[in-house]
Amino acid sequence: MRKLLSVMAMMPLVACVDTPPPRASAPPPPVMVGAAHPAGLDRVLGRPAAGLLQLFGEPDLDVREGQARKLQFVSVACVLDAYLMAPAAGREPVVRYIDTRLPSGDDVDQASCIAALTRRSQAR
User: How do beta strands 68-74 and 94-101 pair?
Assistant: First the structure.
């Protein structure tokens, strides 16, 4: 009986023990120029804004901040943010970094998003 009482006395303490929350999987890192990247990303990385306009059409968002520029292209399939910066003083800005996601905000394969955006005039 004493063992049962001592176990019962510990029950409220067991409920107070913190258990770590389940770990969320980390999103894939964005791709930057100079890093190894999958095939298909070379259509965007290192390209000037004119190259993106030729590939995807007019951007849905064009934001400039200092020397940096962000072009956003949206389709029903995905959203691509392309960040352009000049590789050196006096040079034309080129895409140095990209980020892709589904319209819901979930991660999406970057090469697949690029392929989908090249067809976005048909998907809109």
Answer: unpaired
- Topology of domain 38-124, per CATH? Beta-lactamase Inhibitory Protein; Chain:B, domain 1 (3.30.1450)
In sequence order, what are the beta bridge partners of 99?
Answer: 81
At 68, list the tokens.
């940096």
pTM of full prediction above 0.70: no
Residues 116 and 80 sit within 8 Å (Cβ to Cβ): no
pLDDT tens series, the chain, 124 aa: 555 455 555 555 444 445 454 444 444 445 454 455 556 799 999 999 999 999 999 999 999 998 899 999 999 999 999 999 998 888 999 999 999 999 999 999 999 999 999 987 654 4
Radius of gyration of the chain (CA): 24
Q: Are strands 94-101 and 61-65 parallel, antiparallel or unpaired?
A: unpaired
Domain map of the chain by residue range?
38-124
